[in-house]
From TrEMBL:
It comes from Flavobacterium ponti. This is DUF2809 domain-containing protein. Keywords: Membrane, Transmembrane, Transmembrane helix. Coiled coil: none annotated. The chain crosses the membrane at residues 5-22, 28-45, 57-76, 96-114.
Length: 127
């Protein structure tokens, strides 16, 4: 299990670097960053909750991403202040978009399928 946790940690770092890079490089569609965000959340949850079944991690990652997106509809002063920071902007986003929900679904699904096919963690118990 410790080896799997290390794999997830490395994946989190790689996806984080790719996600931040996708926001800094002109010409990369913003949608790619949203897909990478969902992948990051999925692998981050796998890192934290290594014993959780993969399909439950998939559902939790979707719930997390959807919750963050829906919270963008909330305009409370302290939340707006956090969103204006670089880290707050990366984590909480800025404005609600229906398309982001689609991107989060695609990203979580990609991570889930990668987990099943390539990482081969809990393949027999995942569904």
């Amino acid at each position: 299990m410790k080896n799997n946790r290390l794999k997830y940690f490395i994946l989190v770092l790689i996806v984080m670097i790719l996600g931040i890079s996708s926001r800094k490089i002109n010409g990369i569609p913003l949608l790619i960053g949203d897909v990478l965000y969902a992948i990051l959340i999925y692998f981050g949850l796998r890192f934290l909750f290594i014993h959780l079944k993969t399909y439950k991690t998939f559902v939790l990652s979707l719930l997390f991403c959807f919750t963050i997106e829906i919270l963008q509809l909330v305009q409370i002063d302290w939340l707006i202040t956090i969103r204006k920071t670089t880290l707050g902007h990366y984590i909480l986003g800025e404005g609600f978009l229906w398309l982001d929900l689609f991107c989060y679904t695609i990203g979580s699904l990609i991570a889930f399928l990668m987990d099943l096919k390539y990482l081969k963690t809990q393949n027999l118990n995942s569904l």
